[in-house]
Design brief:
By secondary structure, the protein is of the alpha/beta class. It is about 20% helix and about 25% strand. Keywords: Hydrolase.
């Protein structure tokens, strides 16, 4: 499984022959990429805030996935074909090509549209992406990545996502102010029991500018064995080779 961070909460994830783009927003200081550079099979959105869906309209040939409220709003705004929109919900798993995507909740607000004038999109989401179908039987041959979305610390990370969905790696927001900061994100890494953790959602705007060494130090202060990978913008890793 190949992962690329394009700044903020924007990730490219390749699972087999399936290319997934999460929360496309390329107007951020960590990336040199532009929206037309990508041709994803699937676009997943965690919620309706502009800094997570700004470039969705570039990908009307892709399959759009997310909660029914958010993808319905985006499909109307950008004229997605009905057959290219997959609305699913918290706890549900959908097979997208070679990837199995399980939606979990994220604790955050979810206004939509410019100025958030559209109705609320309901619950926000995070995604657990795996190359095998999630089961209650541990599969040591599977590779699983958790994109937490915009969220605060949740006990579900300790009680559900970690022990049952078993991510190998997690991308966690660390910028504080709008999401978890370094301390709570480090606790999340510990609760999830992941081997690898990637900070995201920081340094985009002045309120979320941080020193990522704080996150590294906070993870070290927990009992977590997670290796912290502070990626440069547009840097890729092969999760199977870490």
């Amino acid at each position: 499984m190949d992962l690329t961070w394009h700044g903020h909460a924007t990730w490219s994830v390749s699972v087999g022959d399936t290319d997934i783009l999460i929360d496309p927003f390329f107007d951020n200081p960590k990336t040199d990429a532009e929206a037309p550079d990508f041709d994803p099979d699937v676009v997943l959105v965690t919620h309706g805030h502009d800094d997570h869906v700004a470039d969705v309209g570039e990908y009307t040939d892709a399959t759009l996935g997310g909660t029914p409220e958010v993808v319905g709003h985006l499909a109307d705004a950008h004229d997605f074909a009905e057959d290219d929109v997959v609305g699913f919900n918290l706890g549900g798993t959908v097979e997208f090509g070679d990837a199995y995507v399980t939606m979990h909740r994220a604790d955050h607000t979810n206004g939509m549209g410019e100025g958030f004038v559209a109705p609320s999109g309901g619950n926000c989401a995070g995604y657990v992406i795996s190359d095998t179908v999630p089961t209650q039987v541990a599969d040591e041959d599977s590779t699983t990545f958790y994109h937490a979305g915009d969220t605060g610390l949740m006990t579900e990370m300790r009680e559900v996502i970690g022990p049952y969905l078993e991510p190998d790696a997690a991308a966690l927001p660390v910028g504080d102010h709008f999401t978890m900061g370094p301390m709570q994100a480090a606790i999340a890494a510990d609760w999830l029991d992941v081997d690898h953790v990637f900070p995201m959602h920081y340094d985009t705007f002045p309120p979320i500018e941080i020193d990522t060494d704080r996150f590294v130090d906070e993870v070290a202060a927990t009992d977590s064995d997670a290796a912290v990978h502070v990626l440069d913008g547009d840097e890729s890793v092969d999760l199977d080779e870490l």
